[in-house]
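pinging the channel bc i need a second pair of eyes. not urgent but kinda urgent?? the chain im working w is below, pasted from the shared doc
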Amino acid sequence: MWESETSMELPQEVKELAKALKEAGFSAYLVGGCVRDFLMGENPKDWDIATSAKPKDIQEIFPESVYENEFGTVLVKTGSEEEGLDIVEVTTFRKENSYSDHRHPDAVEFTDTIEEDLSRRDFTMNAIALDIVSDEQIIIDPYGGQADIRAGIIKAVGSPEDRFGEDSLRMMRAVRFAARFGFDIEAKTKKAIQKQAETLAEIAPERIRDELIKLLMTDGAGGGIRLMSEVGLLEQVIPELQEGVGMEQNKHHIYTVFEHNVRALEYAVEKGFPLHLRISSLLHDIGKVGTREWKDDPRGDRTKKGKKGDWTFYQHQYLGEKIVKEVMNRLKFPKEMIKKVALLVREHMFVYDPEVVTEKGVRRLLRRVGVENIDDLVKLREADRIGSGVPKAQPYRLRDLQAKIEMAKKEPVGVKQLKIDGKVLMNEVGMKPGPQMGYVLAILLEEVLDSPELNTEEALLKRARELMEMDENKLKKMADKAKEMAREAQDRLDDAIKEKYFVK
């Protein structure tokens, strides 16, 4: 859909806003990302209207609105329950002066034309307007944004140096758009980013964090991180990650430290992992730069150094934990997320060889990382493996560990599952500690396994009183049979878990 005129199906809420502005004698245009997304066949996430109406006019037309800024943007409540349509930004045509803080214009001047309004926008793909007041939906595209979208190019409006001087965060936005859409950054725009990358340091860390999050949540996150490195932005945001560029590893890795981390991130993106796991994957080996040492080994392979040995990264996970905390605190991430990511980075080197890992070792791992984090830790190890260039995310060894973890998470079949215990039996039915109590508890467990609805204190106490009246030899035989049934139930549970992970 690339003609100068188009026919877009607009939400009713947007149509009603435009109609109200038109009836009051004002023009109205859809602008920015919503027009871009329409042209690219995507559903807009929010809607922005530019109008010739001044803020006070907008407020008079839409009483259910809020105006709490100096930039001409009025938030109009539409009554819609759909996110992105519940509140629409309606902004007066404006032009802006200098940006001394590289974020906000020092002064805003309202103007009369949509063309002047579009001239202040960041990229040509976002400097397209759609006239929604005229009878025909006409596209206003003074900077060739449609052509740049067709060509797959991110290009600044006018002078890229001026646009990035106004707001340095636009440089990160350029990278994010390139990663999101699979576009290239136009040569002059890219050169301006490389020249002005250091000005990103003047941007509030919270804004940088939010832009980084948006990048990491795109399908092209890995390519975006590589592009940030190429144009000098990564050095400003996460210099510790940039230090791994070109740093070779040992014989177990075919990629550099930086490339390994990025490929781990790409696996996390491919699998749809949440933000904290994407960050963990990207930063999991960030401690390798500070721990890399050469280890001579007469028995090893001869390397580029002309002697036998290899690079080592002893304890890199602990330095990585420290660096992750520094990076995420610097970028003002939430404390709980910092804590979780740091833990995953620290623990990502866990051992999972079947001949080494015992049941006791698995229980210690669960206690150390927490049941709530163990599945994430396994996923991070998968990303680590794929980032190393191996073909399988889950070899037999890792599946075997997962089976052991799941068995450790599930409480073994035993008397602890009962709603009563020996203390209750002593207090409520006068039973004394000894073999009889063990027999009774074993029988009660077998009966509950067969009929879970019996697992109430009232029902169990009633049955315990009945069992107390039986001959002890008969009670022992019943208990022995009950224990065998419980063992079989546990075996069935373990077999099901092993089959689930293909380790039977």
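so Residues 1-5, 500-504 have pLDDT under 50 and may be disordered. and The longest helix spans residues 472-500. — does that match what u expected or am i reading it wrong
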